[in-house]
Design a protein that fits this description.
By secondary structure, the chain is α/β, with parallel strands linked by helices. It is built from 28 helices and 26 strands. An eight-stranded mixed sheet has the order 17-16-14-12-11-10-25-26. A seven-stranded mixed sheet has the order 18-19-20-21-22-23-24. It starts with 15 loop residues before the first helix and ends in a 10-residue tail after the last strand.
Length: 790
């Protein structure tokens, strides 16, 4: 029998009631009004006085009551007063009216890019940044307005992304009301550059140089690891691809790219271990670790989870310097109290809640569960490896459910697989950051050493996200989080009874026996004998045409961003693509080009005669050169054939050589390659984004446009000729469109026309991936993607 000793799991709970009351008062005040914070604070103070009076002979209860009294009075006083000031700020009133304003502000946090998928001639990426700032002076509609509140600036990325915390700038724009329940009084939509920028603190300039240096060093790595490593080390996800970001969320690994206690524990632990090997005393070790801690906090920025972890680490280092035994739970409660009193907006921040809950679970639950596993004969290392991610999942699931509107069921497994490489990647990344500026060669070596760890994390996240049933939908917001918490509490209480545990084990085993064979051994998707699949790639196009050879298919367009088209091809088991056709060079058709090549051979890339926009043509040409595949041009009248599939090129019929491009992209849309495919499901007409003029050309030049299946032009926009749709007279009409898109696609008039013609209309935003089978039967995958990134 294993008799290995286990850690003492008892914790000092005296500060916990005070922290809970402080957090609850601020949360209620922000969500329901400042007066609720007053009520909760006063009620807590009264309760504390009663406990103090009755617990004169109980020191621990007396200490807890004293802390509760102090925090109750702070909640009823300073906390509620700050909430009241924010809720009554004059800028909030002006923001509700959408008035123009000129604000002189101090930047509080690093600019955060707002990324969006590409569409039309707009390249994918960040076009705006969000900056949190504190108002110094304000002028609204030409008149001065007294305000010292917090605002968010929504500004152009090129002109505002270089600003640093501590800088004063002037911004001019339109006010908008804030959306979140925090201390933000207004949002300023800025159009121009920052005016009269002041100097930034020297330490912020130094930190910015180090962050930029790490990004430069990471350029020696492939794109995905190069974007992930700064996220692991510094929480800087500005270069992280949207695909990897989504996969980390689905796999339950998103916390790895948000700097928190884990990062600080690794950094401070490494410093303390090194100084211990050098036999330095505890005070000097604590001072050195504290210096590294302060530098790291400046480097990563004042995120809520970072501040919580920083205060906890500072308390632990102080205890080390004083020679006192530290305790994680009092440090956590102290951090909550300090930060919520200093900034009540922390109470509604999901990142702060996630960090506090995760730490609480690791402190309270993980040691007890590890001890229980050890008593049952599991080796201590394995016991901790199982208990830690399970405890973290249990306590953070409600927060994640409310924040993301979903729950990852593979989180425990993926975190177990990811855990061994997180600390090495973090240490190597930090060493590369600090050595890179004065020894670039060593920095590059360290980055290369961290590359395998980053690749492993991406692999774990990708396979975890692809697992059947990896993510289940859940109500979002605070109500969804509370519902998830209630469900978990019921489950935890239920499994304490042996009969309930046996019943739940039987139910889980039965579910696995029923659903695993259905989802894995005999999946419903893809359907047998599919001829065409319209992939759900958001607001864009991607079509897959099967040949008679399994695993071999022609792809037309690649969607607006990497990832979705790759996932669609993976589900279809396509690994050979003799031809990848790009109907035209708008971003929502070429954005996913790189991911088509992931794990697949591509014979050639085909385009039409159009070469606009220029950035897109250069991107396609560069990718063809990098992949060493030919880049060919398709022209009307050409025919291409493979076993079970033939393509006739019908258009474009006319591409003006020097016609000026219209702002709405019509000229490029009308240069789309138009294909008619001969398949076992009949004729399929693929129209790209052709609009009125190009449709009229096809009607005039092609005698017979009839097809059993129509890929509806331009995502079902209103620019479709009824006579063109009537000439095709399809039995099935497929609309590729993104959920919640801002363009009004698909148009009701176009859908009504197709319905009147007797066509069966499908939409990827409602139906997900859609397959056409022999006899024009339709099969839907039924798991559409969410709204596109904006």
């Amino acid at each position: 029998m294993n008799t290995a000793p286990v850690a003492d799991t008892r914790q000092d709970m005296r500060l916990v009631p005070a922290a809970v009351v402080c957090w609850l008062a601020a949360l209620a005040g922000l969500l329901s009004g400042w007066w609720t914070a007053v009520a909760i604070g006063l009620a807590s103070a009264v309760l504390a006085v009663l406990v103090l009076w009755r617990a004169r002979d109980h020191p621990r209860a007396r200490d807890a009551a004293a802390a509760l009294l102090v925090l109750g009075l702070l909640a009823a006083g300073p906390i509620s007063w700050r909430i009241r000031d924010a809720q009554r700020d004059e800028l909030r009133t002006a923001a509700a009216e959408g008035l123009p304003a000129v604000l002189r502000v101090t930047i509080a946090e690093r600019p955060k890019p707002v990324r969006s998928a590409g569409y039309a001639d707009r390249q994918a990426g960040a076009r705006s940044v969000v900056l949190a700032a504190d108002v110094r002076t304000a002028s609204v509609d030409g008149r001065p307005v007294p305000s010292s509140g917090r605002v968010l600036l929504l500004a152009p990325v090129d002109q505002w992304t270089s600003l640093l915390p501590g800088q004063e700038v002037t911004g001019t724009g339109l006010l908008m009301p804030p959306r979140g329940a925090d201390l933000t009084v207004a949002v300023l939509s800025v159009r121009g550059p920052p005016a009269d920028p002041g100097p930034s603190p020297w330490w912020q300039r130094a930190a910015a140089g180090l962050r930029a240096g790490l990004h430069d060093l990471c350029q020696v790595l492939p794109d995905e690891p190069a974007g992930l490593l700064p996220g692991l080390v510094l929480g800087d996800t500005s270069a992280l691809s949207p695909r990897v970001e989504q996969e980390f969320v689905a796999a339950g690994l998103a916390h790895l790219t948000a700097v928190s206690g884990g990062n600080l524990a690794v950094i401070c632990g490494a410093v303390l271990l090194l100084l211990r090997l050098l036999r330095l005393g505890p005070r000097l070790s604590a001072a050195a670790a504290g210096t590294c801690l302060a530098g790291f906090l400046v480097l990563v920025g004042p995120e809520p989870s970072v501040l919580r972890a920083g205060v906890m680490a500072a308390v632990a280092l102080l205890a080390l310097a004083l020679g006192r035994r530290g305790s994680a739970l009092p440090a956590l409660a102290f951090a909550v109290c300090v930060l919520v009193v200093a900034d009540p907006a922390m109470a509604t921040d999901f990142g702060f809640a996630l960090s506090v809950c995760a730490t609480g679970g690791l402190v309270l639950l993980a040691p007890r569960w590890a001890e229980a596993l050890v008593r049952r004969g599991i080796p201590p290392g394995f016991a901790e490896g199982l208990a830690i991610p399970l405890a973290a999942f249990l306590v953070t699931a409600p927060v994640l459910a409310g924040m993301a509107g979903s729950v990852s069921l593979v989180s425990v497994l993926t975190n177990v697989l990811a855990a061994p490489v997180v600390a090495p990647a973090t240490v190597l990344g930090v060493l590369a950051t600090v050595t890179g500026p004065w020894w670039p060669g060593a920095g590059k070596v360290l980055v290369h050493l961290a590359d395998p760890e980053a690749r492993w994390l991406i692999t774990v996240a990708r396979h975890g996200a692809r697992a059947p049933g990896a993510v289940i939908a859940w109500p979002g917001g605070w109500m969804g989080g509370l519902l998830a918490a209630a469900v978990l509490v019921v489950l935890v209480l239920a499994v304490r009874h042996r009969r309930v545990r046996v019943l739940m084990a039987v139910l889980v085993a039965g579910a696995l026996l029923v659903f695993v064979p259905v989802r894995v051994l005999a999946p419903a998707w893809p359907p047998r004998n599919w001829a065409m699949v319209e992939c759900d790639v958001g607001q864009g196009d991607a079509v897959v045409l099967a040949t008679a050879e399994p695993g071999r298919a022609v792809v037309v367009d690649a969607g607006p961003e990497p990832g979705p088209v790759d996932e669609c091809l993976h589900r279809l088991a396509v690994d050979r693509i003799p031809l990848l056709v790009l109907s035209h060079l708008h971003a929502d058709h070429i954005g996913g080009l790189t991911s088509v090549f992931d794990g697949r051979t591509v014979g050639a890339i085909a385009v039409g005669p159009g070469r606009s926009p220029g950035w897109a043509w250069r991107q396609v040409s560069a990718e063809a050169t990098r992949r060493a595949v030919p880049l060919v041009e398709l022209n009307p009248g050409e025919r291409l054939a493979w076993p079970g599939l033939a393509l006739d090129v019908l258009g474009p019929r006319y591409v003006p050589a020097r016609a000026p491009e219209r702002p709405d992209g019509t000229t490029i849309n009308n240069s789309s390659v138009v294909l008619r495919a001969e398949t076992p499901a009949g004729r399929i007409l693929l129209t790209g984004d052709v609009e009125l003029a190009a449709q009229a050309d096809l009607l005039a030049d092609i005698g017979n446009l009839k097809a059993e299946v129509l890929k509806v032009p331009h995502h079902g926009s209103r620019y479709s000729l009824p006579s063109f749709l009537a000439a095709v007279v399809p039995r099935v009409a497929l609309v590729s469109v993104g959920a919640g898109n801002p363009y009004g696609h698909p148009s009701k008039s176009t859908i009504d026309t197709l319905t009147a013609l007797g066509a069966r209309v499908t939409r990827t935003d409602l139906d997900g991936d859609t397959a056409v089978l022999a006899g024009t039967a339709i099969s839907r995958r039924g798991e559409p993607r969410g709204p596109p990134h904006r």
